[in-house]
Amino acid sequence: MALLELKNLTKRFGDVLAVSDFTLSVEQGEFVSLLGPSGCGKTTTLQMIAGFETPTSGAIILNGRNLEDVPARKRGLGIVFQSYALFPHMTVEQNVGFGLEMRGVAPAERAGRVRKVLELVHLDGLANRYPRAMSGGQRQRVAVARALVIEPDLLLLDEPLSNLDAKLREEMQLELRRIQQEAGVTTVLVTHDQSEAMALSDRIAVMQAGELMQVGSPFEIYERPRSSFVSTFLGKTNTLAARLEQVTPEGSLLVCNGVTLKGPPANFLPGPVEVSLRPERVELTDADNAVVSGTVSERVFLGNQWLSKVNTPIGELLMTRRNRGSDEPKPGDTVHLAWSAEHLSILAADRSRLT
Amino acid sequence: MNRQSAAKPWLLSAPALTLFLALLLTPLVMTFVLSFNSFNFYGGIKNTHDFGNYLDVLSDSFFYEIFARTFLIALATTVVCVILGVPEAYIMFRMKPFWRSTLFLVILGPLLISVVVRTLGWQILLGNKGLINSGLMNIGLISRPFRMMYSSPGVVIAMTHVMIPFMILAVWASLQRQDPATEQAAESLGAGPLTVFFRVVLPQVIPGILSGSLLVFSMSASAFATPAIIGGRRLKVASTTVYDEFMGTLNWPLGAAIAVILLVSVLIIMLAWNRLMERRYSGAFG
User: Fold this and answer.
1) Domain B47-281: CATH architecture, name and number where available
2) CATH architecture for residues A4-223
3) Does this model's pTM top 0.90?
4) DSSP strand E in chain B: where?
5) pLDDT tens for residues B104-119?
6) Inter-chain CB proximity B188 and A89 less than 8 Å
7) Which residue of A has its CA nearest to B177?
8) CB pairs < 8 Å spanning A and B
9) Which of B174, B189, B202, B205 has the highest number of chain A CBs within 10 A, making it the mutation to test binding with A?
10) Cβ neighbours for B278, distance < 8 A, ≥ 6 positions apart
11) Is the predicted ipTM greater than 0.85, yes or no?
12) Which residues, including other chains, have CB under 8 Å from residue B134's CB and lie 6 or more apart?
């Protein structure tokens, strides 16, 4: 049985449907991310799990118990807020110990458990600091420690890394993953940052406009997006409008701007579709093996890779190539591009969820 | 920076500075000088310079009583303002915008009405035959009227009404500075509404309570109209005594000395309070 089950969860604010018919189950020990742009309903979903918002309909079941009538303070969840929400008038030790104090844990035991969890987040020795005197990364760790010390069934992380600078964010991603696995706590993360979701999660639930678009492992979602929204939201991609002409068990034939392309087998009837092609799958080749040829219009150097824009008969294509220390085609150069048929993803054209 | 632009800020603030110097500092300095002059009933004010008036005030238990009453009333007003104002500010903070602005109007209302009119209104309520006493007697709760007019509690009640907006606004400002997620955090850790208020909200609005208290205390200690009307002629406080010395006995130097003592002692109390609280909370608030 799943640890957390969200069943047909719906939240309406007046006329606005913030979350619509959201169903998801989270297994014991799993790390699941709710990923989507701002306003997609991911935070509202988290607030409903936490008990700060009441669902309009649907059920939240934790450990087989319906949380409908359980107030936030009795749900026993650990929550890390976007702003960390540390108590500014309390020391680290008092902050972390607050949850235990509320549970009536005796001071001696409390001190021991606080010390242990501060060791887990590598903050030993800072127990008597005030949050004001700490860096963003340290505050983040205090917030995590405060949420973990009560040994919650479920840890909720609300955009926990969005207030950190880029370098620290990467460090904390690894750190969060380590802490989560050492503590073995089931975790739901809310984020708009696809790289964060991919780095941390076992599974990602992509949301758009209150609806669940796709659930799966990061690799699955990146490689086999089921809609153009998911493919563009996770990483860069080239999205092309095309017409599916022919489908066979071996592959398919597509026509895009008059150019015929080979594609993978697809579960669609012939007709208008969208095709997604990842920039890193586009290769340079010679004129004989080219799928399309075009002219480089822009080129950006990103350190570890080159990002180029190529004007081709099927449209503008983004191409990324690893920096191997050799020179790359310059703007104005004619290039020949190729990719294998299975690297095209064929998506429904109407941009809505597949049924 | 060239000379012209260095002079610009001074030039721009010159009108305000002039007004400040002319209308506040000059009378203050003149009052200070006046307090060292002497007075008798036949010769009027003599241009002497000694500490006679201060010695008179400081050696007379009559004045000690007046100052003690002044500060007790101010202290009581401040305490009542904290007890009523802090929860009120918090409750308003949690209200829906419509009710919040309605209540704001109610709370700021007293400031829109002339202090004399408002205080006379309190007189109607608090008098021995006023609304409160006759109401209580009519339903048989009391047999004799409570004496509220011409008493310190009456002054405190009326003064709280005037002063509480300042407390609420000060607390409001610090409520807005606090991270609303801290309340949710406490709740998620198992704290009930009262614990959230006393352990999380209250400590965070202490700076607001402190500045509100300073405001309310200093304004109550120097308030004139309310103690003059509710307190009457016999329940003297420092400011009404100053008034009586100036306008009644015409002993301006003595009145000036009392005014200076009031000013200095309020200043000392405020600075000491500020220092004490800064030391107490410097760990958590910067």
Assistant:
1) Orthogonal Bundle (1.10)
2) 3-Layer(aba) Sandwich (3.40)
3) no
4) 38-40, 44-46
5) 999 888 888 888 888 8
6) no
7) A88
8) 73
9) B189
10) none
11) no
12) B145
